[in-house]
Design brief:
2 domains; S-adenosyl-L-methionine; 344 residues; VC0802-like; Rossmann fold; elongated; eight-stranded mixed beta sheet; 10 helices; alpha/beta; 15 strands
Protein backbone atom coordinates (compact mmCIF):
# COMPACT_ATOMS: atom_id res chain seq x y z
CA UNK A 1 0.00 0.00 0.00
CA UNK A 2 1.27 3.46 -0.90
CA UNK A 3 0.26 6.43 1.20
CA UNK A 4 0.79 10.17 0.79
CA UNK A 5 1.25 12.55 3.69
CA UNK A 6 0.60 16.26 3.25
CA UNK A 7 3.13 17.87 5.55
CA UNK A 8 3.13 21.27 7.21
CA UNK A 9 5.42 23.80 5.56
CA UNK A 10 5.99 25.60 8.86
CA UNK A 11 9.39 23.97 9.11
CA UNK A 12 11.74 22.32 6.63
CA UNK A 13 12.90 19.29 8.64
CA UNK A 14 10.66 18.71 11.66
CA UNK A 15 7.61 17.25 9.80
CA UNK A 16 9.64 14.48 8.14
CA UNK A 17 11.59 13.77 11.34
CA UNK A 18 8.33 13.47 13.27
CA UNK A 19 6.89 11.02 10.72
CA UNK A 20 10.03 8.87 10.93
CA UNK A 21 9.92 8.87 14.73
CA UNK A 22 6.22 7.99 15.05
CA UNK A 23 6.43 5.27 12.38
CA UNK A 24 9.39 3.78 14.24
CA UNK A 25 7.67 4.04 17.60
CA UNK A 26 4.47 2.37 16.36
CA UNK A 27 6.37 -0.36 14.53
CA UNK A 28 5.23 0.57 11.01
CA UNK A 29 7.81 -0.46 8.40
CA UNK A 30 7.96 1.58 5.20
CA UNK A 31 10.02 2.50 2.15
CA UNK A 32 10.40 6.10 1.05
CA UNK A 33 9.06 6.58 -2.48
CA UNK A 34 9.10 10.36 -2.82
CA UNK A 35 9.94 13.38 -0.71
CA UNK A 36 9.15 16.91 -1.86
CA UNK A 37 8.27 20.11 -0.06
CA UNK A 38 5.02 19.46 1.79
CA UNK A 39 4.61 15.94 0.41
CA UNK A 40 5.85 12.53 1.47
CA UNK A 41 4.98 9.26 -0.31
CA UNK A 42 5.64 6.00 1.51
CA UNK A 43 5.24 2.37 0.55
CA UNK A 44 3.98 0.26 3.45
CA UNK A 45 4.50 -3.48 2.69
CA UNK A 46 2.34 -4.79 5.53
CA UNK A 47 -0.96 -2.96 5.81
CA UNK A 48 -2.36 -2.70 9.34
CA UNK A 49 -5.08 -0.05 9.63
CA UNK A 50 -4.83 0.10 13.43
CA UNK A 51 -1.11 0.89 13.31
CA UNK A 52 -1.71 3.71 10.83
CA UNK A 53 -4.55 5.08 12.97
CA UNK A 54 -2.18 5.34 15.94
CA UNK A 55 0.41 7.09 13.78
CA UNK A 56 -2.11 9.64 12.48
CA UNK A 57 -3.47 10.32 15.98
CA UNK A 58 0.02 11.29 17.18
CA UNK A 59 1.28 13.53 14.37
CA UNK A 60 1.34 17.32 14.71
CA UNK A 61 3.23 18.62 11.65
CA UNK A 62 1.17 16.58 9.14
CA UNK A 63 -2.14 17.81 7.71
CA UNK A 64 -3.64 14.65 6.25
CA UNK A 65 -2.87 11.13 5.03
CA UNK A 66 -4.40 9.32 2.08
CA UNK A 67 -4.02 5.96 0.37
CA UNK A 68 -2.88 6.48 -3.22
CA UNK A 69 -5.26 5.13 -5.87
CA UNK A 70 -3.91 6.90 -8.98
CA UNK A 71 -0.62 8.62 -9.75
CA UNK A 72 -0.47 9.93 -13.30
CA UNK A 73 0.39 12.92 -15.46
CA UNK A 74 -2.15 15.58 -14.51
CA UNK A 75 -3.38 15.80 -18.12
CA UNK A 76 -4.21 12.08 -18.05
CA UNK A 77 -6.09 12.11 -14.76
CA UNK A 78 -9.63 12.19 -16.15
CA UNK A 79 -8.85 9.47 -18.70
CA UNK A 80 -7.41 7.19 -16.00
CA UNK A 81 -10.25 8.05 -13.60
CA UNK A 82 -12.74 6.75 -16.17
CA UNK A 83 -11.03 3.33 -16.00
CA UNK A 84 -10.91 3.12 -12.19
CA UNK A 85 -13.39 0.82 -10.35
CA UNK A 86 -14.82 3.51 -8.06
CA UNK A 87 -17.72 1.26 -7.03
CA UNK A 88 -15.22 -0.93 -5.15
CA UNK A 89 -14.30 1.83 -2.69
CA UNK A 90 -17.40 4.08 -2.63
CA UNK A 91 -20.66 2.63 -1.35
CA UNK A 92 -22.31 5.49 0.52
CA UNK A 93 -21.32 9.14 0.04
CA UNK A 94 -18.25 10.90 -1.29
CA UNK A 95 -16.55 14.23 -1.88
CA UNK A 96 -13.69 15.23 -4.18
CA UNK A 97 -11.20 17.95 -3.32
CA UNK A 98 -8.25 19.07 -5.45
CA UNK A 99 -5.21 20.83 -4.01
CA UNK A 100 -2.46 22.57 -5.99
CA UNK A 101 0.90 22.28 -4.26
CA UNK A 102 2.80 24.51 -6.67
CA UNK A 103 2.12 27.10 -9.36
CA UNK A 104 3.01 24.89 -12.32
CA UNK A 105 -0.42 23.40 -12.94
CA UNK A 106 -2.74 25.27 -15.31
CA UNK A 107 -5.75 23.15 -14.40
CA UNK A 108 -8.83 24.73 -12.83
CA UNK A 109 -9.31 22.95 -9.49
CA UNK A 110 -13.06 23.63 -9.27
CA UNK A 111 -13.69 22.28 -12.77
CA UNK A 112 -11.49 19.27 -12.08
CA UNK A 113 -13.46 18.49 -8.91
CA UNK A 114 -16.71 18.75 -10.89
CA UNK A 115 -15.44 16.54 -13.73
CA UNK A 116 -14.05 13.89 -11.40
CA UNK A 117 -17.24 13.91 -9.37
CA UNK A 118 -19.22 13.32 -12.54
CA UNK A 119 -17.04 10.41 -13.62
CA UNK A 120 -17.37 8.79 -10.20
CA UNK A 121 -21.15 9.33 -10.13
CA UNK A 122 -21.49 7.46 -13.43
CA UNK A 123 -19.63 4.46 -12.04
CA UNK A 124 -21.21 3.93 -8.62
CA UNK A 125 -24.61 2.83 -7.35
CA UNK A 126 -27.60 5.14 -7.73
CA UNK A 127 -27.82 5.26 -3.92
CA UNK A 128 -24.40 6.92 -3.64
CA UNK A 129 -24.59 10.67 -3.11
CA UNK A 130 -22.18 13.59 -3.02
CA UNK A 131 -21.75 14.87 0.54
CA UNK A 132 -19.38 17.79 0.87
CA UNK A 133 -19.83 18.19 4.63
CA UNK A 134 -19.37 14.67 6.00
CA UNK A 135 -18.65 12.11 3.27
CA UNK A 136 -17.98 8.47 4.06
CA UNK A 137 -15.25 8.56 1.38
CA UNK A 138 -13.13 11.69 0.96
CA UNK A 139 -11.10 11.69 -2.24
CA UNK A 140 -8.04 13.93 -2.27
CA UNK A 141 -6.26 14.94 -5.45
CA UNK A 142 -2.87 16.66 -5.26
CA UNK A 143 -1.34 18.46 -8.23
CA UNK A 144 2.42 18.85 -8.04
CA UNK A 145 5.22 19.03 -10.63
CA UNK A 146 2.84 18.09 -13.43
CA UNK A 147 1.68 14.98 -11.59
CA UNK A 148 -1.77 14.19 -10.22
CA UNK A 149 -1.90 12.00 -7.14
CA UNK A 150 -5.40 10.84 -6.20
CA UNK A 151 -6.33 8.88 -3.12
CA UNK A 152 -8.76 7.95 -0.41
CA UNK A 153 -8.20 9.97 2.77
CA UNK A 154 -7.52 7.71 5.73
CA UNK A 155 -6.80 10.38 8.31
CA UNK A 156 -6.76 14.09 8.97
CA UNK A 157 -4.88 15.73 11.82
CA UNK A 158 -7.23 17.92 13.83
CA UNK A 159 -6.24 21.57 14.08
CA UNK A 160 -8.88 22.01 16.77
CA UNK A 161 -6.81 20.31 19.48
CA UNK A 162 -3.75 22.49 18.94
CA UNK A 163 -5.89 25.63 18.65
CA UNK A 164 -7.95 24.97 21.78
CA UNK A 165 -4.87 24.15 23.86
CA UNK A 166 -2.83 27.21 22.98
CA UNK A 167 -1.07 28.37 26.18
CA UNK A 168 -3.29 31.42 26.77
CA UNK A 169 -6.44 29.25 26.57
CA UNK A 170 -5.46 26.99 29.48
CA UNK A 171 -6.52 27.70 33.08
CA UNK A 172 -2.95 28.62 34.03
CA UNK A 173 -0.86 30.76 31.68
CA UNK A 174 2.64 32.18 31.81
CA UNK A 175 4.42 34.11 29.02
CA UNK A 176 6.93 32.21 26.89
CA UNK A 177 5.07 28.88 26.91
CA UNK A 178 5.72 26.53 23.99
CA UNK A 179 3.04 25.92 21.35
CA UNK A 180 1.14 22.59 21.66
CA UNK A 181 2.16 21.60 18.12
CA UNK A 182 5.88 21.90 18.81
CA UNK A 183 5.49 20.27 22.22
CA UNK A 184 3.74 17.27 20.62
CA UNK A 185 6.46 17.01 17.98
CA UNK A 186 9.22 17.03 20.59
CA UNK A 187 7.41 14.29 22.52
CA UNK A 188 7.10 12.25 19.32
CA UNK A 189 10.79 12.62 18.47
CA UNK A 190 11.68 10.64 21.62
CA UNK A 191 9.69 7.61 20.37
CA UNK A 192 7.83 7.43 23.67
CA UNK A 193 5.23 4.65 23.75
CA UNK A 194 1.88 4.39 25.47
CA UNK A 195 2.35 3.50 29.14
CA UNK A 196 6.01 4.55 29.27
CA UNK A 197 7.31 7.28 31.60
CA UNK A 198 8.26 10.73 30.32
CA UNK A 199 9.89 13.44 32.42
CA UNK A 200 9.91 17.21 31.99
CA UNK A 201 12.24 18.62 34.70
CA UNK A 202 11.40 22.25 33.76
CA UNK A 203 7.67 21.71 33.34
CA UNK A 204 6.59 25.37 33.53
CA UNK A 205 2.87 25.47 32.68
CA UNK A 206 2.80 21.79 31.67
CA UNK A 207 2.51 22.08 27.88
CA UNK A 208 4.93 19.25 27.14
CA UNK A 209 3.35 17.01 29.79
CA UNK A 210 -0.10 17.64 28.30
CA UNK A 211 1.00 16.44 24.86
CA UNK A 212 2.85 13.44 26.33
CA UNK A 213 -0.26 12.53 28.31
CA UNK A 214 -2.37 12.82 25.17
CA UNK A 215 -0.32 10.10 23.45
CA UNK A 216 -0.66 7.83 26.49
CA UNK A 217 2.60 8.38 28.38
CA UNK A 218 2.86 8.43 32.16
CA UNK A 219 4.05 11.94 32.85
CA UNK A 220 6.38 13.24 35.54
CA UNK A 221 7.01 16.95 35.90
CA UNK A 222 9.08 19.11 38.21
CA UNK A 223 9.77 22.82 38.50
CA UNK A 224 11.72 24.93 40.96
CA UNK A 225 8.79 27.38 41.14
CA UNK A 226 5.84 26.14 43.22
CA UNK A 227 3.49 28.44 41.28
CA UNK A 228 4.37 26.51 38.12
CA UNK A 229 3.83 23.18 39.86
CA UNK A 230 0.31 24.16 40.90
CA UNK A 231 -0.40 25.64 37.48
CA UNK A 232 0.75 22.50 35.69
CA UNK A 233 -1.56 20.36 37.83
CA UNK A 234 -4.51 22.62 36.94
CA UNK A 235 -3.70 22.41 33.24
CA UNK A 236 -3.29 18.62 33.27
CA UNK A 237 -6.61 18.16 35.06
CA UNK A 238 -8.24 20.57 32.61
CA UNK A 239 -7.05 18.33 29.74
CA UNK A 240 -8.32 15.16 31.39
CA UNK A 241 -4.86 13.79 32.18
CA UNK A 242 -4.81 11.98 35.53
CA UNK A 243 -1.77 9.68 35.27
CA UNK A 244 0.81 12.23 36.40
CA UNK A 245 3.29 13.10 39.13
CA UNK A 246 4.17 16.78 39.46
CA UNK A 247 6.20 18.22 42.33
CA UNK A 248 8.55 21.05 43.23
CA UNK A 249 12.25 20.32 42.74
CA UNK A 250 15.42 21.78 41.30
CA UNK A 251 16.30 19.89 38.08
CA UNK A 252 19.96 19.99 39.11
CA UNK A 253 19.19 17.99 42.26
CA UNK A 254 16.36 15.81 40.98
CA UNK A 255 16.15 12.19 42.13
CA UNK A 256 13.57 9.61 41.05
CA UNK A 257 12.86 6.08 42.35
CA UNK A 258 12.95 4.69 38.78
CA UNK A 259 14.58 5.76 35.54
CA UNK A 260 12.30 7.22 32.85
CA UNK A 261 11.94 6.18 29.20
CA UNK A 262 12.26 9.70 27.79
CA UNK A 263 12.90 13.31 28.78
CA UNK A 264 11.44 16.29 26.92
CA UNK A 265 12.05 19.79 28.18
CA UNK A 266 12.24 23.49 27.35
CA UNK A 267 14.43 25.01 30.09
CA UNK A 268 13.89 28.66 31.00
CA UNK A 269 15.75 31.44 29.25
CA UNK A 270 15.12 35.04 28.26
CA UNK A 271 13.40 37.95 29.93
CA UNK A 272 10.09 36.27 30.79
CA UNK A 273 11.62 33.02 32.05
CA UNK A 274 12.49 32.36 35.67
CA UNK A 275 16.04 31.09 36.12
CA UNK A 276 16.37 32.22 39.74
CA UNK A 277 19.31 34.40 38.74
CA UNK A 278 21.28 31.46 37.34
CA UNK A 279 23.12 31.93 34.05
CA UNK A 280 21.45 29.82 31.34
CA UNK A 281 24.70 28.05 30.40
CA UNK A 282 25.44 26.98 33.97
CA UNK A 283 21.83 25.98 34.64
CA UNK A 284 21.67 23.81 31.53
CA UNK A 285 25.05 22.19 32.13
CA UNK A 286 24.28 21.28 35.74
CA UNK A 287 20.83 20.00 34.77
CA UNK A 288 22.25 17.76 32.03
CA UNK A 289 24.69 16.22 34.49
CA UNK A 290 21.77 15.42 36.77
CA UNK A 291 19.43 14.14 34.05
CA UNK A 292 21.90 11.65 32.58
CA UNK A 293 21.33 9.45 35.61
CA UNK A 294 17.54 9.58 35.37
CA UNK A 295 16.99 8.18 31.86
CA UNK A 296 17.20 4.57 30.69
CA UNK A 297 20.16 3.49 28.57
CA UNK A 298 18.07 3.40 25.37
CA UNK A 299 16.03 6.50 26.24
CA UNK A 300 16.07 9.74 24.25
CA UNK A 301 16.07 13.34 25.46
CA UNK A 302 14.56 16.14 23.36
CA UNK A 303 15.71 19.60 24.37
CA UNK A 304 14.86 23.14 23.25
CA UNK A 305 17.60 25.76 23.57
CA UNK A 306 18.23 29.27 22.23
CA UNK A 307 20.74 29.45 19.36
CA UNK A 308 23.26 31.49 21.31
CA UNK A 309 23.98 28.66 23.77
CA UNK A 310 26.72 26.23 22.70
CA UNK A 311 25.17 22.82 23.29
CA UNK A 312 28.49 21.02 22.87
CA UNK A 313 29.84 23.02 25.80
CA UNK A 314 26.70 22.35 27.84
CA UNK A 315 27.00 18.60 27.26
CA UNK A 316 30.73 18.49 27.98
CA UNK A 317 31.43 16.00 30.76
CA UNK A 318 28.06 14.26 30.36
CA UNK A 319 27.12 10.99 28.64
CA UNK A 320 24.78 12.72 26.20
CA UNK A 321 25.49 13.06 22.48
CA UNK A 322 23.57 14.96 19.82
CA UNK A 323 21.95 12.72 17.20
CA UNK A 324 19.58 15.18 15.52
CA UNK A 325 18.96 18.95 15.44
CA UNK A 326 16.34 21.28 13.98
CA UNK A 327 16.45 25.09 13.90
CA UNK A 328 13.30 27.21 14.22
CA UNK A 329 13.57 30.94 13.60
CA UNK A 330 11.25 32.57 16.14
CA UNK A 331 12.06 36.19 15.28
CA UNK A 332 14.99 38.33 14.13
CA UNK A 333 17.02 37.90 17.32
CA UNK A 334 16.09 34.35 18.35
CA UNK A 335 16.34 30.91 16.75
CA UNK A 336 15.17 27.96 18.78
CA UNK A 337 17.22 24.77 18.44
CA UNK A 338 15.46 21.44 18.95
CA UNK A 339 18.04 18.75 19.76
CA UNK A 340 17.54 15.02 20.15
CA UNK A 341 20.08 13.40 22.49
CA UNK A 342 20.98 9.86 23.42
CA UNK A 343 23.34 8.39 25.97
CA UNK A 344 26.76 7.36 24.71
Amino acid sequence: MEIALLLSKEHSTLPRAEVDAVMDCEGVKYHLKMEQEGLLILDIPHKNPEDLERVIERLSYTHEVFQILLQVDENDLLTEAEKYPWDEIISSSYAVRVKKMDKKSKLNTSKLEWDLGGIIKSRVSDQVRVNLENPSTFLRVVLKDGQAIAGNQIGKISKKHFFNLKPHKRPFFYPGSMSPKLARCMVNLTRIKKGQALLDPFCGTGGILIEAGMVGARVIGTDIDYKMVNGTKKNLEHCGISNYQVFQEDARKLELPHKVDAIVTDPPYGISASTRGEKSHDLYHQAMKSLQGLIKEDGLLCLATPHYLDLDEILAGTKFKIIEQHHIRMHKSLTRVISLLSLV
